[in-house]
Amino acid sequence: MATQAQVITCKVSLVIEEVEVAPPQAGEVRVKVLFTALCHTDAYTWSGKDPEGLFPCILGHEAAGIVESVGEGVTEVQPGDHVIPCYQAECKECKFCKSGKTNLCGKVRLATGVGVMLNDRQSRFSINGKPIYHFMGTSTFSQYTVVHDVSVAKIDPKAPLDKVCLLGCGVPTGLGAVWNTAKVEPGSIVAVFGLGTVGLAVAEGAKAAGASRIIGIDIDSKKFDRAKSFGVTEFINPKDHEKPIQQVIVDLTDGGVDYSFECIGNVSVMRAALECCHKGWGTSVIVGVAASGQEISTRPFQLVTGRVWKGTAFGGFKSRSQVPWLVDKYMKKEIKVDEYVTHNMTLADINKAFDLMHDGGCLRVVLDMHI
Ligand SMILES: NC(=O)c1ccc[n+]([C@@H]2O[C@H](COP(=O)([O-])OP(=O)(O)OC[C@H]3O[C@@H](n4cnc5c(N)ncnc54)[C@H](O)[C@@H]3O)[C@@H](O)[C@H]2O)c1
Ligand SMILES: N[C@@H](CCC(=O)N[C@@H](CSCO)C(=O)NCC(=O)O)C(=O)O
Ligand SMILES: [Zn+2]
Ligand SMILES: [Zn+2]
Q1: Going by CA atoms, what residue is nearest to atom 17 of ligand 1?
Q2: Do 162 and 176 lie in a common domain?
Q3: How far is the CA of 21 from the centre of ligand 1 (A)?
Q4: What's the gap between Cα 20 and its chain centre?
Q5: Residues 27 and 42 occupy one common structural domain
Q6: Can you give the CATH number for the domain in which 300 is found?
Q7: Same domain, 152 and 176
Q8: CATH value at residue 352
Q9: How far is the CA of 313 from the centre of ligand 2 (A)?
Q10: Are residues 20 and 149 in the same domain?
């Protein structure tokens, strides 16, 4: 086909470049990133569908490392501390942090949303004097990064960093969606849409909360076997049914589920997840991130008749307070983490790692940043 005068769609790679990382300023921490995993939100922003996506930038937000140096006034971490960068900050002082109602923090969010540090609204990354933007206040696809002190959790130095890096995003998000946002009670019937890392962590959290049935829904039936070991008790592939998936679930559950979780980022599935909830009390939690311009819809009657629609960011966990607690739970073998790591690679292979995310067998790829 002739392509002259046409827009061409083609593949591009992330590039690995030498970057200058400026010293941390007041209230900032420079971290040597040892291991980082890839999350679908990195792929989402790279795709250009994130309205906050700003390029050129350094992506990455699910990582663990060691503090290299700290700026003036930083008291809660020091060089040598083992840390997890937290894209969701916790300053403990702002209106949000003090509300007792949310884990969102307002202190640095406006700066991190536009790829800069709060102090001087500049980036600490540059190439030949030209700034490279930060991403989600973390930018962990770099061997060194600079984060705000409110965006870093100090953790047990005995914890294996090549595993607990996952506690920077996907696993806490799923667990917390169940424990903090939905507050699933023992005996509940739960539906999980999407059986990737986040959906499996929802299943794990629901099992721990004592759910009686955990129904996993995915369009890839290969996901089902593995999901059993995370707590899923029944499986549905929407492709095997002619009826809308919400009707299939309502029929199977005597009127609908107590809780549902959308872990895909698809607005049609978000609607189905709400509408498969039981009249009068069923609650649906949106976890997946949908692209810019996408909107959710349903008949208001669904809410009038008692269903509740919620969303969650980082599973409602307060990052600096609770990430160390999650690390301790992992060390006591009370939550899974190793089981979500399906591949280990190096920074040099980051493009292959992104390709692997489309492979049904892949959950998390962990990159060793210094080989
Ligand atoms: N809210 C938050 O704080 C937060 C944190 C982390 C990730 N996320 C988002 O959560 C979502 C899930 O992340 P993940 O890493 O588990 O992704 P993933 O791609 O590994 O998992 C998604 C799963 O959904 C399945 N799927 C796709 N379309 C489907 C459909 N129409 N019906 C049923 N199943 C379908 C896929 O087969 C896959 O198993 C992403 O959108 C990610 O950006 C949100
Ligand atoms: N810039 C994106 C926001 C996407 C989004 O909702 N991010 C989640 C975390 S995804 C982690 O993998 C989140 O926590 N949001 C709350 C926040 O960003 O403060 C967009 O605009 O689509
Ligand atoms: Zn993420
Ligand atoms: Zn705050």
Answers
A1: 196
A2: no
A3: 32
A4: 27
A5: yes
A6: 3.40.50.720
A7: no
A8: 3.90.180.10
A9: 7
A10: yes
- Centre of ligand 4 to C-alpha 316, Å, is 14
ipTM rounded to 2 decimals = 0.99
- For the segment 117-146, what is each residue's pLDDT rounded down to a tens digit? 999 999 999 999 999 999 999 999 999 999
Instruction: Report which of 232, 230, 262, 263 is spatially closest to residue 246, judged by C-alpha positions.
Output: 262
Whose alpha carbon is nearest atom 12 of ligand 2?
A: 41
Q: Which residues of the chain have pLDDT under 50?
A: none
> How many domains, the chain?
2
Task: Residue 232: give the domain boundaries.
Answer: 171-313
CA atoms in the 13 A half-sphere facing the CB of 333? 0
Strands (E), the chain: 20-21, 28-37, 62-70, 82-85, 125-127, 130-132, 144-148, 152-154, 189-193, 213-217, 234-236, 259-262, 283-286, 308-311, 341-346, 364-368
User: Is 328 within a domain?
Assistant: no
* Tokens 């976890």 found at: 287
Q: Note the pLDDT of residue 222.
A: 93
Q: How confident is the model at residue 108, as a pLDDT?
A: 98
The answer, yes or no, to whether any atom of ligand 1 lies below 6 A from the CB of 61, is no
Cα atoms found within 13 Å of the Cα of residue 24, Cβ hemisphere only: 24
